[in-house]
Amino acid sequence: MKTYTLKDYINSLEKENLIDEIIVKDLDLSTPITQIAHNSKNVTKNTLYICKGIKYKPEYLTEAIQNGAMVYVAEKENVSQPDFSHIVVKDIRKSLAVISTLFYDFPATKLNMIGLTGTKGKSTTAYYIKSILDNYMKSQNLPDTAIVSSIDTYDGKTCKESLITSPESIDLQEHIANAVDCKIQNLVMEVSSQALKLDRVHDVYYKAGVFLNISEDHISTIEHPDFEDYFASKLKFFKQVETACVNLDSDYVDRILEEAQASKKIITFSIKNSKADVYAYNIQKPSHISISFKVKTPQWENEILLTMPGLFNVENALAAICVALTFGIPYENIYEGLKVARASGRMESHMSKDGSIIVIVDYAHNKLSFEKLYESTKQEYPDKKIITVFGCPGGKAFLRRKDLGHLSGKNSAITYLTAEDPGPEEACDISKEIATYVSEEHGEYKIIDDRGEAIKQAILENPNSVILITGKGNETRQKIGTQYVPCLTDTQYAQEALREYDKNCN
Questions:
Q1: Longest dimension (CA), the chain
Q2: In this structure, what is the dihedral angle of CA atoms 362, 364, 365, 366, given to the nearest 10 degrees?
Q3: What are the beta bridge partners of residue 454?
Q4: Start-to-end Cα distance in the chain
Q5: Helix crossing, 399-411 with 427-440: angle to 10°?
Q6: What is the pLDDT of residues 69-116, one digit of tens each?
Q7: CA-to-CA distance for 367 and 363, rounded, in angstroms?
Q8: Where does residue 383 rank: exposed (0-12), middle (13-18), buried (19+ CB within 10 A)?
């Protein structure tokens, strides 16, 4: 990887009109920068240190200097050591992205970047795309596709569970660079509204970008103050996309299509509008875990088979097909890739031995995903009661509590309210707030703080039901306070309860 000098970093920041002032004392600007960091503990000799973060403290800069920082970058209010060499910038987040992109030598220009944004379906669609591309790359004896998602991250060098949807720019650029080093040709990633608003993906350009849908979410004082801010942040995506894949069935589609004109090309998909470039019809359900449908594209018209439940996944599959067509992937690879595609913790289906209980583990956590989940469940399992197990996170997205409470109260025979990353709040307090909205729909509910116990009771107490366990998927940690506490996954909890149910039935 190429090493750049301090002068190169200054030039890059100046090019973006980010610099307010430069105070460089007794430094040779041709000195190479061998490390960048916004964590003072990661600083070594010749490091460019970036003073960033809501929780940033002046003592972090002191530690960075002691550890060998050459120069630091900060907004004016964080210049706590004015006599040490520093660069004052107008926007620290954008500056971090510019610095990170240069340090890792513009890695996003060296492979095919594929981005997905939308309120619902990003993770599943990302794994659909990865499965198609992996199938094709295997046929060419080439490496698998890299992925950066809310489920996990794989870049050729590391594979780990993710804590956030889109990582900070410095971490993202490292993942992309790792993929380039490993000769990976494609990287698919979820692009959150926060990543767009806070410039985590600044200077990342996507060969193909998918806009799935839009609905109210992430509305809070620490995320987006209102829906317009959320929507506008999402729409910034198109300025960074070469080929935009747009869902014609989304709300506000006219505005989405208007903003998509910023991309060089637009491909549309739909299950309702036959004029879409990629159109699905004759949607059928051969079994409780499979969906088949016909797809018409400009190149071919043929059948697609999904082996994940959830009728709404047809839209996600169409988005993946649009991306595949953008890269010239043959139908055979698309078919085989989608047939085996899986997204951990997304629409995982489990059944009791007597067929009485269907358990679906899904990451559904906002209004749109709940609406789609209930709609699909009623169509797929019309003779069964619906039982829902869920909670809401603490300290953010407060509107979800009302929306999801109303939806569950309206659609569930009984709702089990439980912990779901309560963070700075008490799980019981969050559940009690949600319960008020369940009650407004005259819905029954139980509050059980222990998530495993809530799942167990929901399964053992409700025969002839579909048990929807939402929000956590296959996550292995529960955020309590500021700590991530290890826990079993929802799938593991469900399987334990189903084994007990099966044993009791014998």
A1: 81
A2: 180
A3: none
A4: 63
A5: 50
A6: 999 999 999 999 999 999 999 999 999 999 999 999 999 999 999 999
A7: 12
A8: exposed
